[in-house]
Specification:
With about 325 residues, the protein is mainly alpha-helical. The protein is built from 11 helices and 5 strands. The protein is globular and about 65 Å long. It starts with a helix and ends in a 33-residue tail after the last helix.
Length: about 325
């Protein structure tokens, strides 16, 4: 698993460099899913920052859960994870991010933008004479906007105008904060989790999700055995490894379970099993009969944003 994680980090950095002319300075992993070991791999791979969810930070500090009273005492600052090859972590304000992701689409754009700026004002006032709060607002790059009028154009236009006009609010990037020497507090270790509920249950733990992981592990072991036996030439091994990477994508197990729309789950299920079957054929093996059986059928009816996104907190 460690080797596969490193391979994905390297591939992501190379992809970014091809498209933008330089490797990324940091990463927001899938749904902000992190652990101490994983962010150290990011650091060793050349990243200087990572971002994750508020629940991960609260769990790592042993504090109350997401959006609990007193969160302003620990949330709005960077943290340094690891002494050697350390990396700076930033943690999402789940309440503010979810306002954009789930609530403001129902508001008039100007009212939503005003409310958001008021929320930031309140955070600045609460900080008093202390360091300026670093408020990390992170959400899916594409999913929210289809629920806004005109794909969020009027809201985003109003929001950025209000942010730029405000005398005390400065929009910035994580890389700029790291380069600018913003002080980071030490964080000895991270409790493994993501922005979704502060844990990893959106990917693993339920019978459907666990079965999908078992199928993936079986395929990986089959690939390893064929390679170790010398049955794969270089071109075949490269093609099989690329196919394995497709099968390791985070979205597969994200969808499996009875809380997602059946139509979407069935489509992802069929495609996942087809990709695993193709991997077996690439390495010269017949796919096992277990891949003929559906992993998950989903459950809920499609509707609203919940079918495409998870809120940071349950309920």
């Amino acid at each position: 698993g460690r080797e596969r994680a490193i391979a994905h980090i390297e591939a992501a950095r190379a992809s970014h460099a091809r498209r933008f002319g330089a490797p990324p300075r940091g990463m927001w992993p899938a749904e902000g899913a992190v652990s101490t070991d994983f962010v150290q791999l990011l650091a060793q791979g050349g990243c200087r920052w990572f971002a994750s969810g508020e629940g991960v930070l609260a769990n790592s500090l042993g504090r109350d859960g997401v959006a609990a009273p007193g969160r302003g005492d620990f949330l709005y600052r960077p943290y340094r994870v690891g002494a050697e090859a350390g990396i700076t972590g930033f943690f999402r304000d789940d309440r503010l991010s979810d306002l954009i992701g789930f609530e403001y689409a129902k508001w008039h754009s100007d009212d939503a933008a005003t409310n958001f700026v008021d929320e930031l004002d309140a955070l600045a006032k609460a900080a008093g004479d202390g360091p300026r709060p670093v408020v990390s607002v992170i959400l899916d790059g594409e999913n929210a906007w289809e629920y806004y009028p005109y794909n969020g154009f009027y809201f985003l236009d109003a929001l950025y105008a209000a942010l730029e006009a405000h005398p005390e609010i400065e929009t910035t990037t994580f890389a700029a904060l790291v380069d600018g020497g913003r002080a980071a507090e030490p964080l000895p270790a991270l409790v493994a989790g993501s922005w979704v509920y502060g844990n990893l249950t959106t990917w693993i733990g339920s019978p459907d999700k666990n079965r999908a992981w078992d199928l993936l592990c079986d395929a990986k072991l089959a690939l390893d055995a064929q390679a170790a036996a010398g049955r794969l030439d270089d071109a075949t091994l490269a093609a099989a490894t690329r196919q394995l990477a497709d099968c390791e994508a985070s979205d597969w197990c994200w969808w499996f379970g009875d809380y997602n729309p059946g139509e979407s789950v069935i489509a992802f299920d069929a495609l996942y099993r087809a990709k695993l079957s193709h991997l077996y054929r690439l390495i010269g093996l017949e796919p096992p009969a277990t891949l003929d059986e559906p992993v998950s059928r989903g459950g809920v009816e499609a509707g609203g944003t919940e079918g495409a996104m998870r809120r940071a907190v349950q309920g």
